[in-house]
Structures are given as structure tokens and as C-alpha cells.
Amino acid sequence: MCNHCAMHAPRGPQMQKVAPNFGNYNLNYNFSSLIQPKISKRVTLRWLLDRYSDVLWEPGSHKYNVLSFVGELDEILLGTTFTDFTDAMVDSLIAALRKRGNSNATINRKMAALSKLLRKAYRMGDIESLPEFKRQREKAGRIRFLDPDEEARLFARILEISDLYGRLCIFLVDTGARLGEGIGLRWQDIQGERVTFWLTKSGKSRSVPLTERAAAAIHASDRRKRGPFAGIAQPKFRAAWNEAKQTVGLGTDPDVVPHILRHTCASRLVQGGIDIRRVQTWLGHQTLQMTMRYAHLASSDLDICVPILERAARRKAG
């Protein structure tokens, strides 16, 4: 076949390049939406408290204190908004609280409430970082408790103001209950001559037996209400307490607050010879260290040491 014929002769099937058909897919990506910077909202401590207080703390005196603590911290910060709560902000709060006369123990309680709130906010994405909290060194301090004469004068005046308030005081000093635990007591929590506290600071329930006057204080209450001391508002009770302590000459003592009744109960148990482990169980302390604050009151245990020292001294003199 000549070259001319070869060029025009029919050929077999040949491969053709065909452009891929993607149909009607839109391959135009909108990259601008992928690189937009994150816009962080700015929050305040008050906003976080309103958002999470009911989740983090159950109703009661502890929650009441927390609301006061965080509210004070927000006031110190002048309602500052933030996305990061910095170490410098923590330092400024501690310095301000010290200028206000707060002890290290009080500062630790307020910082613990703040730390719990900020950790929750961080987990929920409301803030972008957390500061470091360092516990302040606490002094052992003096534990104030009522002697029998002080109790008699103070209780007599409170009973004059309100029979219900007076009976609550008797119940608290003989059970060692916290104020919120006493007010929160329900009739079903009383079985015979024992009471069970379910809503406690530690989150663990405890039961204690009743003295005769504590039982009488309970049973004199109106059974139609939810509990023997239901309906008592803490602010009104504290106002009555402060008026009574002023009247009986204890107004200048800053340690004479309702919590002194719990200290008084613990002190009487230790001074009466009850071992420290039983006192821990009675009060519902989570650690023995908390109860050891009262251990020095068991001074009678040391009386047996005196004859030994005296005998040694006589032998040396002889």
C-alpha cells in the first residue's frame, strides 16, 4: 500500500480523551467562612453566677454565702468584663480582700467559690483560660464558744423576741447543726429521738440523738408546717440574733455569730471526755483535722501527767 493510501485507509477504534463530567456540582468553595476568627463574648462574674449558681450549689446557707462572696468579688472588679480570668485579677482580688480585713481563712473560702464558678465556665466555653489558685496559709486561731452564763442571757433575750427563734437556738446548740441544716429540717427527718440531716455542707447525711430540751424545742412547733423551723428567714433570724447579743453585752464580740452554737456543742463534747473521733462523726466533719481544732479543750486528759512529774521532782530533790 502506498503511502497515500495508507494515510486515508480506515483505521480501527481509537482512544479519545474525554473530559470528566462532574454534572452540576459546584466546586467553588467559600474559603472565607473557614478562616473567620472566633469572636469571644465577654462576661462578668455576676453573669456567670446567674447562669450557673443553681447548677453548682444547692439551696441553703452555703449557697447564700457563695452568692454573697462572688457578688463582693464582682463589686471589687467593678463589673469588669473578660474572656480570660488572669492570675493578675486573682492577685488584685486577694489584695483588696486583705485591705478589707479578711483573714486568710475567709479569703480561701471566697477563692474556693470563685474557682468552682470559673472551672464550670471554662468547661462550658464561656471563658478561654483559668488562673492558678494558691491556698493562703491559715492560722489555727481561737475558737470562741459560749459559757453557760452567756448562753442563758443570750437565749433568754432571743426567746423574748421570738419563741421560734429561741427554740431554734436550743436545738442548734444541743445538736451542733448548722443554721441552714436546722431550718431545713423536715418532720419526716425526725424518727423517735433522733434527727437526720440530709442537706449538709459535706453532701453526706448524718444522724444524731436528741437531748430532752432539743426534743422539746422541736415538738413545740406547728406540725402543719413542713418542718419544726420551716419558714424562718435567715436574714431576719440574724437580725434578731444581733439585737439580742447587743442587749446582753456581747455586741462588741465579732465571734458571737449563730455558728458559735456549733462550736459550743463541739467544745462541750470534747470537754466532757468524748473522744475526738466521735465528735467528728457527730459534727459530720469530712476530715479529722477539722475536728482537731477542739482537741486542746480535752485538757483533763493531761491531769494524770502532773503526779508523774511531781514524783520525778521529789526523787531529784531527795
TrEMBL record:
Tyr recombinase domain: residues covered: 141-307
Residues in Core-binding (CB) domain copies: 43-122
Source taxon at top rank: Bacteria
Keywords from the named record: DNA integration, DNA recombination, DNA-binding
Keyword DNA-binding assigned: yes
Family: Belongs to the 'phage' integrase family.
Protein name, as recorded: Integrase
